[in-house]
Amino acid sequence: xxxxxxxxxxxxxxxxxxxxxxxxxxxxxxxxxxxxxxxxxxxxxxxxxxxxxxxxxxxxxxxxxxxxxxxxxxxxxxxxxxxxxxxxxxxxxxxxxxxxxxxxxxxxxxxxxxxxxxxxxxxxxxxxxxxxxxxxxxxxxxxxxxxxxxxxxxxxxxxxxxxxxxxxxxxxxxxxxxxxxxxxxxxxxxxxxxxxxxxxxxxxxxxxxxxxxxxxxxxxxxxxxxxxxxxxxxxxxxxxxxxxxxxxxxxxxxxxxxxx
Length: 260
Prior knowledge:
Elements: H1 5-24, E1 26-29, E2 33-39, E3 42-43, E4 51-54, E5 60-66, E6 70-79, E7 85-96, H2 101-107, H3 112-129, H4 134-139, H5 141-155, E8 161-172, H6 175-228, H7 231-240
Antiparallel strand pairs: 1-4, 2-3, 2-5, 6-7, 7-8
Helix pairs in contact: 3-5
């Protein structure tokens, strides 16, 4: 019997169509993602968890949204309170709220970062940096960081975003301004060193005065005591005597000791 190529072609087409239909009706959401089901332009009001499932073939599609921690490293240019240009390089991290990704997709789309996050970040950085003097900002980076983080918690849409962190990588000023800051710091250090030296010399001088006054007072007390009691003179001499009689003496007096 001759092989019927026409029937084989028809059955082959049917089988291929069935396979395509089968695969089109299956979706897989990977770990770390949530699925958003879109059917003929309509978004299902549900975030699909990771795993395998079925959808209507050809008319439904499953959009996969990453809900893992996202890290953004960007730069922004701002002005300080004293009108110095500051180029700020920073890192910002956040998470999407998994249960609300369908709503975010429906109302904002998948380019939510450029629409909902970056503009807020730039505005907050400009506002906070603008409250600081350039030189003060250098030594208060962590305080400024906390101010930025607090403002982000208030301004970013809490319906969609959570778990924020913010860190400065670098704050860069013009070369002329940085040289001026360095020169000022060196001058302040030298001035403080001079103050410390002056204080040390003054304290040493005061200590010498105190010592001299104490010695003078002691001498005055001692002189007064010797004047009022002549026996103290002989007592002082006795204290200093080494116990040896002189080899030659004039007269018959024995020093310090009266003998009868």
